[in-house]
Amino acid sequence: MQRYSHGAMRRCSGRTDSNGVNASQGRGYNFCELAFRSRLNASGAFTLAELLVAVGVLVLLVLLVSQLLNSAATIMTLGHRQMNADSQARELFDRMAIDFAQMVRRSDVDYYLKSSTTANDCTLCTRQRGNDQIAFYSTVPGWSALTGAQQSPVSIIGYRINVSGTTLSNRLERLGEGLIWNGATSDTRADGRPASVIFWAPLNPWANATNSPFDVIGPDVFRFEYYYLLKNGDLSSTPWYATSSVRGMQDVSAIIVDIAVIDPKSRVLLSNSDITALAEDLADYSGQPLGGLLAGWRTFLDGNTSLPRPALSSVRFYERSFYLSPASL
Using CA atoms, how far apart are residues 156 and 195, in angstroms rounded to an integer? Predict the structure, then answer.
């Protein structure tokens, strides 16, 4: 119970009601005590205005916290997508580095390259618009995908983007077929020659194989472009600078590869035809300096308004140079 001063109690003790009865007599309370209790209760409660302000501040804090959490989740998601794309590009480039480093560079073997059709010693050199293809011999050990049982110290290595129109479309594939020395295989190409000995098909090395001697190595890679660093320091889309001759790529010092990667969550926002069209819209190499091709791709992507922006914002571009071992002949 609230304690009061003696003076206050005396002032209250002489107070009478309307009938002249002392307020402190015959009752279990007095007016002074009720007054102090009412004042105490009034000072310990919140007004409606105070409650409204408190609720408003609480709602504002909840909104700010939720915005911070959403922003953190978005940053983490984008970071994971970036790391996944970086990881896939790094693994792909590491595999390419092994294959290119052991390329058989001889003037008496054939290649499937992006080049001018005037190359007089490269029967499979072609002009390639959009996604490029490349195939060559390499001293990378491999198994024959056609027989499944024979191993060889020399393989036919190839890279291409699959555009078959199936669920595996617009993904980078690697061909790693062990070379069967005696050509012992029943699988043939269009001209009747053994499929596992050399590429005889005029346009597509994989076109006439009844089996599937290639694997998806870049499931999120939808654009593949390469060009050459020549020994004289020039960058070129043809593997020579002096004559119209590949000559075992003896004029080439390095092969420069550019790829475009889209993460799986963004891929579902686009159809296969959308991705194919986007890959074709990303320009071919045409004499740009190092890094210039990727800069052009990025400029085009930033200006694209026909495809969903959330999907395009997740596309990543990468470039790496692969220096070749000295040519044998």
Answer: 11
- What would the pLDDT profile of 217-234 be if each residue is shown by its tens digit? 999 999 999 999 999 999
Separation between Cα atoms, residue 270 and residue 310, nearest integer Å? 10
Confidence of residue 177 (pLDDT cuts 50, 70, 90): confident
Cα–Cα dist 100/253, whole Å: 11
Furthest C-alpha separation in the chain:
133
How many CA atoms within 13 Å lie on the side-chain side of 267?
Answer: 20
Which 3 state secondary structure label does DSSP give 292? Answer: helix
One DSSP character per residue, 64-87 reads HHHHHHHHHHHHHHHHHHHHHHHH
Side chain identity, residue 86: D
Residues with Cβ within 8 Å of residue 221, at least 6 apart in sequence: 88, 89, 92, 161, 171, 172, 259, 260, 261
pLDDT at position 24, please?
47
For residues 42, 43, 48, 52, the Cα torsion angle rounded to the nearest 10 degrees is -160
Q: Report whether pLDDT(94) > 60.
A: yes
Instruction: Write the DSSP string, 89-153.
Output: HHHHHHHHHHHHHTB---TTS--B-B--TT-TT-TT-B---SS--EEEEE---EE-TTTSS-EES
SS3 235: strand
Alpha carbon distance 207, 54 (integer Å): 73
Q: What are phi and psi of 157, to 5 degrees?
A: -105, 135
C-alpha span between 117 and 161 (Å, rounded) = 22
